[in-house]
Amino acid sequence: MQPKANLDDSPEYTLLQKRNILLYKIPPVLTAKGHYLNEWKEAVWQGNLRVAAKGDRAFVYFLDDAQQIYAVCPVADNIESSIQKCVDSSRGYAVRIEDPASKRYMWVGLAFRDRNDSFDFNVCFEDFKKHKDMDKNPAKYAEANRPVNDFTLKSGEKLSLNIGGLESTGSRPKPAGAADLSAFKFAPPPGSRSGPAPAPAPAPAPTFEQPRPPTQTFTSAQQSSDFGWGFDWGAPTTQTTQPTQQLQNVSTAQTQTNKPVSYTHLRAHETGRNLVCRLLLEKKKSLQLWEET
Fold first, then answer.
1. CB of 53 within 8 A of CB of 12?
2. Which of 22, 62, 129, 214 lies at 20 to 30 Å from 205 by C-alpha?
3. 200-222 burial, b for 16+ CB within 10 Å, e for fewer?
4. Are 69 and 48 within 8 A, CB to CB?
5. pLDDT tens-digit profile of 43-53?
6. Spatial contact of 98 and 73, defined as CB atoms under 8 Å apart
7. What's the rounded Cα separation, in Å, for the pair 46 and 63?
């Protein structure tokens, strides 16, 4: 269903479409400031909106879900005579709806739920007004939109392109006095060979060694104390290495004796590095010899 507000034969085209808008019953304006969205309390309709242009006129259609027209707002040349912004919010507008047949009109409040939809609604009429002015004064806007530099080709003028990396058809002349360096070569660095580089030598195979038995180090004083040898007070202290097997044989020979020994004797053998233990052992032997005699 199309409105009868404009009866010319020019085609109609859509400028903007928005969904889920609200129409409010608004109170009369009491001051010169304008309308306030905060004062609108009674919503009378909810539906869709479509802005269309036909010739030099624009119309705002309020449509329900079945695309039936609920109301029409013809937009005048002076947009503020048909659509006025709210003072306290950018989402509200006061629009003048009109009956195409009886020409009766009334003001209702239009509210968008999203600010972006409200911004598109405002810009839509600014673009429509600009295009209408361009159609009425084409010479004015043609002069304003003319580029500053004129890059158009004149009659008989040709355009040549020089693309890098491509060989040109003609040879470029060499400048006078230019030397020919094609036969000049740099000497190789010292120590370099002209042939290919020798292959690296193979890495040697890893070798593994068997672990050796541990050895024990004794001093001459320790040997005389442990094994009953004479103690030389003036002999220098030297380090000798005795195999483990010899120590095991000596300890085995001592354990095979059937003669009982005292605790002092065992203590002297356990602490062979202590001089006091050695003196106690000598005293013990002296007592045993005195008792036997």
1. yes
2. 214
3. eeeeeeeeeeeeeeeeeebebbe
4. no
5. 999 999 999 99
6. yes
7. 9
SS (H, E, C) 132-172: HHHHHCHHHHHHHCCCCCCCCCCCCCCCCCCCCCCCCCCCC
Fill in the DSSP letter of residue 86.
B
Fill in the amino acid letter for 184. Answer: F
CB 218 within 8 A of CB 190: no
Question: Positive or negative, the Cα torsion across 22, 23, 24, 30?
Answer: positive
Give Cα 8 distance to the centre of its chain.
60
Render 9-42 in DSSP notation, one character per residue.
Answer: ---EEEEEEEEEEEEEE-PPP-SSS-B-GGG--E
Q: In 10 A of CB 224, how many CB atoms?
A: 16
Evaluate whether 269 touches 224 at the Cβ level (below 8 Å): no
Convert 228-238 to b/e letters by CB count within 10 Å (16 or more is b). Answer: eeeeeeeeeee
What pTM, to 2 d.p., does this model score?
Answer: 0.47
Written in H, E and C, the secondary structure of 215-234 is: CEEEEHHHHHHHHCCCCCCC
Beta bridge partners of 43: 24
Q: Reduce the DSSP state of residue 277 to 3 states and report it.
A: helix
Find tokens 């693309």 and name the residue.
163
CB atoms within 10 A of CB 9: 7
Joined together, the tokens standing for residue 227 give 């094994």
Give 155's strand partners. Answer: none
Give the list of residues 6+ apart from residue 140 with CB closer than 8 angstroms, or none. none
Q: Which residue has the higher pLDDT, 9 or 209?
A: 9
User: Model confidence over 177-215: pLDDT tens digits?
Assistant: 666 666 667 777 776 555 566 666 776 766 656 566 555
251 CA to centre of own chain: 76
Is the separation of the CB atoms in 86 and 37 below 8 Å?
Answer: yes
For residue 102, list its beta bridge partners. none
